[in-house]
Amino acid sequence: MAPNIVPPDYPRIKVVRSFEELIGTEFADGVNALCWQRDLPGDFAEVVQHLQVRDGIDTLDEATLRALPLSEQGKAAVEVLLEDQQLLRDHGLDPILDCIASYPREEEPGAVRTDVYSFHADSATARADTWLCTYFGPSSEGLRHDQACRRVDLPETRAALLEEFGGQDDRAFLIYLEECCYDLHYAPVDGAQPFGFGQGNLWRIAVQYPGSPVPPCIHRAPDTLPGDPPRLLLIS
After folding, report:
1. Which end of the chain is more exposed for a tag (fewer CB within 10 A), N or C?
2. Tens digit of pLDDT for each residue in 3-53?
3. What residues are paired with 205 via a beta bridge?
């Protein structure tokens, strides 16, 4: 399933035109994702090339980025990376910039896979949002709610989880699903069309928390395939 970029007919996504609109718009009326579409200056591929991340995840700081031997276009990309982080910090957020060759995968996944390659919703105990921007490499992917099913609601999966739990389908089982984060993971239905978050776009997506006015945004990290370049990702 190759993802489409920002489906125009999906009412849960609202495209905004500025950072001020991105941070100032409330999630309401079913809208659970805001996208600031951008065409960014600079050569992010050059930045990634000089970082030489071959495996796993490297978290980047300003000193590391400024020490890279870059062209003017590469330096322009670094300025964008630093400016975006400062924008978020100025609003009380704690952004992290990662160069990602691969995320850890579950070596022996059970009935429900719970790594970041699985479609999932983020969760929190209090009001929160997730912020994402892919500057280079495969972008994050989203899944429409009308094309998704919670994995714990699939009969075969639920039966396997009940066997794993060793009890009955009661409140204790629901607590078990929540504690293991199984209830946050989703399966695409037949014919589902995931959408890509795109490169350069800054997203703010809804998280599952008590009292949230909208359902959480379903998303995942793209599968890492042989030959794919590392991702340059901002997340908060």
Report:
1. N
2. 556 665 789 999 999 999 999 999 999 999 999 999 999 999 999 999 988
3. 33, 130
Measure the CA–CA gap between 222 and 181, rounded to whole angstroms: 20
In the chain, what is the straight-line distance between the N-terminal and C-terminal CA atoms, in Å?
27
pLDDT of residue 103: 81
Q: Which helix (H) or strand (E) holds 78?
A: helix 72-89
Residue 212 three-state SS: coil
For residues 50-84, b (16+ Cβ closer than 10 Å) or e, as one string?
Answer: ebebeeebbebeeeebeebebeeebbbbbebbeeb
Using CA atoms of 102, 82, 142, 205 in order, give the dihedral in degrees to the nearest 10. 130
How do the residues of the chain divide into helix, strand and coil, expressed in percent and rounded to 5?
Answer: 30, 25, 50
- Report yes or no: 136 and 232 within 8 Å, Cβ to Cβ: yes
- Which pTM does this prediction carry? 0.93
For residue 108, name the pLDDT band (cuts at 50, 70, 90).
low
